[in-house]
Every structure is written in C-alpha cells, then in structure tokens.
Specification:
single chain; mainly alpha; Arc Repressor Mutant, subunit A; 5 helices; about 65% helix; extended
C-alpha cells in the first residue's frame, strides 16, 4: 500500500511538473501588461491600423505597441499587412487563426475577472 502511494505521488509530480511547464510557456508568450489587450482588440476589430490600435488601448506608448506587435507577430498571433499599392502606404494588423485559439481562454479570464470584481465589491460593502 505504501509503495502504491509513492508511485501515485511520483506520477502526480510528473503531471504537475508538465502542467507547470505548459502554463509557464503560455504565460511567457502572452504575459505582460499589453499583449492580451492587443490580441483582444485585434480579435474584436479585425483589420486595424497602428494609430487606431494605439487609441483603443489607453496608456500604451507607440514604442511599446510596436515592440509588442513584433513579439506577437513572431509568435504567430498577429499578421502585419502592408498595402504598398496605396499612397501613402497603409500598414494594417490582423489577428491570425492561431490567435483566435485563445478566444476561450480570454472569455474565461473575462468571466473570472467580472466575478472577482463582483466578489471584491460584495466583500467591501459587507464590512
């Protein structure tokens, strides 16, 4: 019986370690103050130009937005489309199909955030 418990604990440690590593990988790609906000706006708005994107995300500087978009493009979440045939040249950003695989995660985080805020407010007003 004691041996079975040790085997179970060892299996749990492996599973736990794999889950921690997977979450760490996911957070590495989408963490930070701005990345999820950018992804959400792109998913909601479709094709969007840089300045419009910056206006829709309060507080983000042009430099930070540019760097975040480059990171998101490298990781396959954003596609940069250059319309060279237009004068002046127009650059748009589009969320990719891969980016849309985060939709359920984003919706779950949104729901959790709404519930959390509600719980905090209820706790504050009860005291």
């Amino acid at each position: 019986m004691e041996n079975e418990v040790e085997v179970y604990k060892a299996g749990c440690k492996i599973t736990c370690g794999e889950n921690l590593a997977a979450v760490e990988d996911a957070l590495y790609v989408i963490s930070g103050k701005w990345k999820l906000k950018i992804i959400i706006v792109l998913q909601e708005m479709g094709n969007i130009r840089f300045n419009e994107l910056q206006r829709l995300i309060p507080g983000i500087s042009a430099r930070v937005l540019s760097n975040e978009l480059k990171d998101l493009e490298l990781n396959g979440f954003v596609k940069r489309v250059v319309h060279a045939e237009m004068t002046p040249v127009v650059v748009e950003y589009i969320s990719t199909d891969y980016s849309r695989t985060l939709k359920n995660v984003i919706m779950s985080l949104s729901d959790w955030g709404k519930n959390h805020k509600k719980n905090i407010r209820e706790d504050v007003f009860e005291k």
